[in-house]
Amino acid sequence: MSKSTYQLDEKTLNMLVQIYSKMGFTFRARTHFDGMVRRGYTIDNDTYSALLFDICKKGDLTSFQYLIKLAQKSNWLPEVNDGKALLRYLCNNRWYDKAFELLETMLFVSPNDTFDAFHSLLEELCRQGSTSIARLLLEEFSNQATILDHKAYLHFVNGFCQEKKFAEAFKIFETMLSKSLSPPVDGSSQLISWLCKTENFEKAIELKNTCSRDQPSALLPIHCALINGFCKSGRLQEAASLFKEVLLKGLVPYVDVFNALIISYCGQNKLKKIKELLGFMLRKNLSISISSYSSMALLTCTGQKLSFALSLKELMLQVTYFPEFVLYNILIFHISSTRNSFLLDSVIDAFHKKELQFDEVTYNYVIRGFLLCNDVSRAVNYLTTMMRQDFKPSNRSLREVISCLCRNGKLAIALDLSREMESRGWNHGLVVQSNIVEALLTSGKILEAIEFLDRITSKDLIPDNMKYDYLIKRFYQQGRLDKAVDLLNIMVRKGSYPEAYSYDYVIQGFCDEHKLDMALDFYTEMLHRDLKPSTTTWDALICSLSDCGRVEEAEDLLKTMIQLGETPSRKAFYSVINKYQSEKNIGKTYGILKMMQEKGYEPDFDTHWSLVSNLSNSSKKDDGKKNSSFLSSLLSGFGFSGKDKNFKVG
What we know:
37 helices
């Protein structure tokens, strides 16, 4: 305890704790406060409040819990304004239970004076995005009937709208209407937009009518919200009718309404209506949005009205602050979609006459345009010019140019571009790699294709999550299983999982090369990834195992197939049956034949007769009952009766 604490009186110490707390000197404030507690001094309400404020600001929950208990034992109750501030601090720290406890105390001691604090807490919770917590608060104090007033409902509607929980907000809104409480304008506008988005237009119109009737000042924002909702939902006729209604009332809709109508009219190719709206906007000095300009540019370019499009661009320069090259870029993009190289050249010429410089966006749009016009050479020219000026083309530009070159037989130019990309350290995406490799393989340049992939891999110019499944198939078809396996492993290292058919090709390839252990390793990995082999892959594994004398493993695979719900092919069954027959293992042969029958296959006559003959010969040699019984069972199983006197064996 500080020596000064012993020397100062009670009043002075209260004042010091309050001053230090308000200045943020928590340690000094606590030192004097603890000294007062030990000496049994009376601590003022203001002292408790100031120190609690300071501790809340510091986020010290442990100290707060200690002090609030002391304060409550001393019958501490903050002033209303202090209580509101303290409740706000508690909310900011997410100490909701402490806030609820404090509010309960305040309401119990002085309910008439602290309802404002309750609304302040509700507002703070809703503002912070904790409207659900606020609803719990409302339920906690629902016995205080006077609390559920208009102001509280407004906080809830605005809070739920802010959190995009419009369904919850609408429930509160309907409760307000049932109690004849006027809804908030901002919240109502957002609810109208949500109702239109969910195609609940009748409710949206009803809400508009209610708000307009109860709050005449809300007529304009509510109507504008509904017009926007109609436009975005494609109900242009209703939007236009409501727009006219607003004008007849002598009101000017918000600028976003004009832009929404322009975009909608563009979608319906109503140029006359668009010109009328533009004229109104110019007279009222309303700004045209970039989205509206883009929609109008698309409409005029699609209709090949280039002169109007250029005039519209000049108008935008007069009434907006958008840079001219941005407006040209939008125009070039939409002109490109027409696939008309003459119009594209006209816009580029107009661009150069303005002494404007191409930026990255302009180059990419021009490249796109000439590709759409099937003028690959000019697209390549702009691409190389762009790169010489140290602009990086978009992945789409690189991808589409190289793809077109490969498709058009201009592989050498595509490879030159690829080498330029390598020198700049640019990644080769899947489409670029696939097109170059496919072109090389088609030309019979297998080694060059492998060298290309090895080179970009060694330079780490491959993005993550690559999907090499198609190239795995192509290298398998070219007899280069080693490269197919390499690509599969690269996929896994890069965080991408191969498709089942990629494993199929690899497994079948190893079976063709009689490398069964490698095939079985990839088969195990395949099952581990929860992928199912194809029937062809099962056949390859089972037949290869049988052919090389590993027939028991082949039989295990047959059983695994059946356990997984698959039906082995007749070929797979016979590869195992024939091997067991060659080994004179009649019991195993019979077992597989029976399994095959259960799967709907009937054995052919030669297999059946060979098995019967072997059993018959074995029975004569052994002169025992065991094989005779086995033979009878086999004959019975395949539809022959042991009592048939006309049937003879041997």
